Automatic annotation (TrEMBL):
<keyword id="KW-0472">Membrane</keyword>
<feature type="transmembrane region" description="Helical">
    <location>
        <begin position="220"/>
        <end position="240"/>
    </location>
</feature>
<comment type="similarity">
    <text>Belongs to the 4-toluene sulfonate uptake permease (TSUP) (TC 2.A.102) family.</text>
</comment>
<feature type="transmembrane region" description="Helical">
    <location>
        <begin position="53"/>
        <end position="71"/>
    </location>
</feature>
<dbReference type="Pfam" id="PF01925">
    <property type="entry name" value="TauE"/>
</dbReference>
<dbReference type="InterPro" id="IPR002781">
    <property type="entry name" value="TM_pro_TauE-like"/>
</dbReference>
<keyword id="KW-1133">Transmembrane helix</keyword>
<feature type="transmembrane region" description="Helical">
    <location>
        <begin position="185"/>
        <end position="208"/>
    </location>
</feature>
<feature type="transmembrane region" description="Helical">
    <location>
        <begin position="252"/>
        <end position="272"/>
    </location>
</feature>
<feature type="transmembrane region" description="Helical">
    <location>
        <begin position="12"/>
        <end position="41"/>
    </location>
</feature>
<dbReference type="GO" id="GO:0005886">
    <property type="term" value="C:plasma membrane"/>
</dbReference>
<keyword id="KW-1003">Cell membrane</keyword>
<keyword id="KW-0812">Transmembrane</keyword>
<protein>
    <recommendedName>
        <fullName>Probable membrane transporter protein</fullName>
    </recommendedName>
</protein>
<feature type="transmembrane region" description="Helical">
    <location>
        <begin position="91"/>
        <end position="109"/>
    </location>
</feature>
<feature type="transmembrane region" description="Helical">
    <location>
        <begin position="149"/>
        <end position="173"/>
    </location>
</feature>
Length: 273
């Protein structure tokens, strides 16, 4: 057990991280994974956690935080009747399958591999926001099977590897096929539930008994980080949302794209700098 001063320093860093993550999540309208994973990576590094488990711990703990927030969001959107439940029913197997595959892959991939994947996908998502107009469509309705099943599995896999709730990928998929952004966002809350629950248990199993994990960790989920981040992020997120309403959609997309570019550059620097 490390000295109490070290634990308190770790908690203080996490409190700051929770405030930053909650604010940015509110500004950009995302579940927080895109913000939390790089923030966790930075904080865990400052806390002296071994490099070879930092990224796995960041993704696993982010996934744990998505479980309660995605369930809460799903219930709120369900009351408004904005969710495409037919799509979710068709993904009950596909999305969790992809999320579980992500934890299997993560168990065998190095920290460097996870950082490289996050950095590359961050660049792809940023490029999409910067250069692809929302008027760009691949079709007028969602594709049928088996393409839809394969897409759901891919969303679960990519989101699980990045510690995302699936919103970024599902929003892209649905809007590319002509669905309104509000319906896409609402449906993404259900996708987050389908991803986060199996991925949560998967990351616990994948990291069980792993050397170098900080105190109060169950597999790749750190409960100190969870306990500190969750209430602070929930408290601060509405203020970020208020700030978001002062910006137009293009400004928000540009801001999030710049943030993703910064995060990608940070990970590339950690790999090759």
């Amino acid at each position: 057990m490390p000295p109490i001063a070290d634990i308190l320093f770790f908690v203080a860093l996490l409190a700051i991280a929770g405030a930053v993550a909650g604010l940015l999540a509110g500004v950009f309208g995302i579940g927080g994974g895109a913000v939390l994973v790089p923030v966790f990576y930075q904080v865990f590094g400052y806390a002296g956690i071994p490099e070879d488990v930092i990224m796995h711990l960041a993704v696993g703990t982010s996934t744990a935080l998505i479980v309660p927030t995605s369930i809460r969001s799903f219930r709120a959107h369900e009351k408004r009747g904005a969710i495409d439940k037919d799509l979710l029913k068709g993904w009950v197997i596909a999305v969790p399958l992809g999320a579980l595959l992500a934890t299997v892959v993560a168990a065998y991939v190095s920290s460097e591999g996870l950082r490289l994947f996050f950095a590359v996908m961050g660049l792809v998502l940023a490029a999409r926001m910067l250069f692809l107009s929302n008027r760009f469509h691949l079709g007028t309705d969602l594709p049928g099977q088996p393409f839809r099943f394969i897409t759901g599995t891919a969303i679960g896999l990519f989101s699980g590897l990045m510690g995302f709730g699936g919103g970024v990928f599902n929003n892209t998929f649905m809007t590319l096929y002509g669905r309104p952004i509000h319906q896409a966002v609402a449906t993404s809350s259900g996708v987050g539930v389908l991803i986060s629950i199996p991925a949560f248990f998967g990351f616990i199993f994948a990291g069980w008994g792993e050397a170098g994990l900080p105190p109060f960790s169950t597999g790749y989920v750190n409960w100190i980080a969870f306990a500190v981040i969750f209430p602070i992020a929930m408290l601060v997120t509405p203020y970020g949302a208020q700030l978001a309403h002062r910006l137009n959609k293009k400004q928000l997309e540009m801001g999030f794209a710049v943030f993703l570019l910064f995060v990608s550059a940070r990970f590339f620097w950690s790999l090759y700098g």
